[in-house]
Amino acid sequence: MTRQRPKVLIIGGGFGGLFCARRLARTDVDVTILDRSASHLFQPLLYQCATGKLSIGHISRPLREEFARRPNIRTLLGEAVELDPDAHTVTALRPDETAFTIEYDVLVLAAGMRQSYFGNEHFAQWAPGMKTLDDALEIRQRVLTAFEIAESLPPGPERTSWLTFAVAGGGPTGVELAGQIREMATRTLANEFHSIQPQEARVLLFDGGQRVLKSFAPKLAQKATDTLRELGVEMHFGVHVTDVRRDEVTVTPKDGGPARDFATRTALWTAGVEAVPFARHVASTLGATTDRAGRVQVGPDLTVTGHPEIFVIGDLAGRDKLPGVAENAMQGGLYAAACVRRDLSGRPRRPYRYRDLGSAAYISHRNALLQVGPLRVAGSLGWLAWGLIHIAFLTGVKNRVSTVSTWLASIARRGRYHRAFLLGGADRPEQRYTYTNWDPEEPFRHIRGTVRH
């Protein structure tokens, strides 16, 4: 009789899932990666895609291509929806709403976080987040369309609202988006219109704190603030965006002052994150403790108490204030794979230790911030270091080469060569295949025809 190899199921093909699978490529296990898009996305560069600097292909790669020469690794398209810890199975949903079941001996939950609207889910209709390729393409379409619509309008309040862009959240993503939109208006589009002056576009940045980039050193954050102001970004601190509608946002001061409305046809949301529904379902099923954002409390080896076979890594791991950054996900993925290898060889697991590799934020062309330990770099040098670091982490040689080419070209020019966007058509029905909006609090029983894998 042949010995059945252990089955490792990885939920999520982001940094954590990718690095875990890579480390297990030559291990005596069978690995399945379940991902709702079947691609790895270099999420830190999403805003570059949204604002036309990079294409989809520069920041994403099919997982099937990544592991084509790794016979012990397979990729499945689907969204995890139900965990059965007793049977060691996960039920997943295909885009056409049929289901299948996957068995596991080891489960690695690396599904990441999603945009949080703090209970105001209706905001999403008018203020997309920045977590997926769909988000990036929607933002590109909204931003570029706003300028196009303004071009056909006469001067007045309506045109002004189309040329006003509101960004909620002063973290790295909000700062990067605000800077890029303003740079696009003042440089890329400056000489392309006849009726409007894109340079007059307003970019409003709202944050509940007293400065941007709270995770950075105060001096670096101040440099970012100065750069944003030079670009023309209008910053409003100590406020929360409390309502988002089709043509305006409402902003309320934290100190209880009067609310204020801002007329805008383009609102973007980067103000918070929360666990994906499956992560909350896993925590509920296993009786695990979670924080307000849904991060799952884990032990020193990143496993759920009482379930040494279930790892939670990356943004979802609630331990020692681990940061929600790519480096933590990568290190967590490598660590989980190391634990699997140690288990196979009968060696004890070591506690997980996160090594801080620093933080970076892109503000504008030739202007970025880099913070690594005591090292603080800003301006052109920070921009150069930012680019080299991001390119070094890109997945696959093909992605690196093409991105290096694009990035080097952007040093010589300020152009944005990926500004195409889709508007759809009234004569086309809605997409046939889509993931359903299932409720993680309810038993998952309405799926058609499950198949065991």
From TrEMBL:
<dbReference type="InterPro" id="IPR045024">
    <property type="entry name" value="NDH-2"/>
</dbReference>
<dbReference type="Pfam" id="PF07992">
    <property type="entry name" value="Pyr_redox_2"/>
</dbReference>
<keyword id="KW-0520">NAD</keyword>
<comment type="similarity">
    <text>Belongs to the NADH dehydrogenase family.</text>
</comment>
<keyword id="KW-0560">Oxidoreductase</keyword>
<protein>
    <recommendedName>
        <fullName>NADH:ubiquinone reductase (non-electrogenic)</fullName>
        <ecNumber>1.6.5.9</ecNumber>
    </recommendedName>
</protein>
<feature type="domain" description="FAD/NAD(P)-binding">
    <location>
        <begin position="7"/>
        <end position="333"/>
    </location>
</feature>
<dbReference type="InterPro" id="IPR036188">
    <property type="entry name" value="FAD/NAD-bd_sf"/>
</dbReference>
<keyword id="KW-0285">Flavoprotein</keyword>
<dbReference type="GO" id="GO:0050136">
    <property type="term" value="F:NADH dehydrogenase (quinone) (non-electrogenic) activity"/>
</dbReference>
<dbReference type="InterPro" id="IPR023753">
    <property type="entry name" value="FAD/NAD-binding_dom"/>
</dbReference>
<keyword id="KW-0274">FAD</keyword>
